[in-house]
Amino acid sequence: MSTNALKKRKIAVLGSRSVGKSSLVKQFIENHFQDSYYPTIESTFAKSVVYKGVEYDCHIIDTAGQDEYSPINSQYAIGIHGYVLVYSITSRNSFNMIQIVHDKIVDFCGVSKIPCVIVGSKSDLSMSRQVDSKDVETLAKEIGCAWIETSAKNNINVGKVFELCLQEIERMQAPNQTEPQSKTCVVM
Ligand SMILES: Nc1nc2c(ncn2[C@@H]2O[C@H](COP(=O)(O)OP(=O)(O)OP(=O)(O)O)[C@@H](O)[C@H]2O)c(=O)[nH]1
Q1: Domain of 51?
Q2: Can you give the CATH number for the domain in which 47 is found?
Q3: I want to staple 120 with a disulfide (CB 3.0 to 4.6 A). Which of 15, 29, 80, 89 is the partner?
Q4: What global pTM score does this model have?
């Protein structure tokens, strides 16, 4: 049974540069989309989300784009409950980065699994698609996580991303635990 206290959930959004991480977060938080591109350094947003009748106080960290050489630092690992790993359906390279980023987090945290959802962004650009849905489905099965395709531009499946992330967090959360636990990389 839930208590009246809001459950806090910290979610990090990671992926290659320019895949649409900020656009996804902005569409979710502010309900708008911008065509122009401004590289992100890092921003945190807060929003309460009701999932399965429970209100969650979500803190969403929009990160700078990663490449294969970017280290995963403690700020993207310690105290994070769940991950949104974003690639663009128009970029095979950005899809390949998902496994790399995932493996880096898992290594950093010293765990075998992390709660995450893989997001194929820019689904409105299907004419330029480089990543088949079957590929992400296969990867998600291997990793053991959720996946979804979205368009921040057309506001398709944006809210669902964060619901799926909460779903994965709750799925991996041990019973009776409300704070991040060792499986989600909380170390001192
Ligand atoms: N067509 C289309 N374009 C999008 C979509 N989402 C983002 N874009 C565009 O893609 C470009 C990059 O988007 P951002 O949201 O800034 O990407 P980012 O991943 O935050 O980029 P970094 O800050 O470099 O990591 C921008 O020009 C956006 O307008 C989408 O759903 N559809």
Answers
A1: 7-174
A2: 3.40.50.300
A3: 89
A4: 0.91
User: Structural domain tally of the chain?
Assistant: 1
How far is the centre of ligand 1, averaged over its atoms, from the C-alpha of 8 (Å)?
Answer: 27
pLDDT digits (tens, 9 = 90+) for 153-170: 999 999 999 999 999 999
H helical segments located in 45-157: 92-109, 133-143
Taking the centre of ligand 1 as the mean of its atom positions, its distance from the CA of residue 176, in whole angstroms, is 38
Domain assignment of residue 184, yes or no? no
In a domain, residue 143? The reply is yes
Helix axes 21-30, 158-172, angle to 10 degrees: 100
Helix or strand (DSSP H, E) at 168: helix 158-172
* ipTM passes above 0.90: yes
Which atom of ligand 1 is the closest one to the Cα of 125? 1
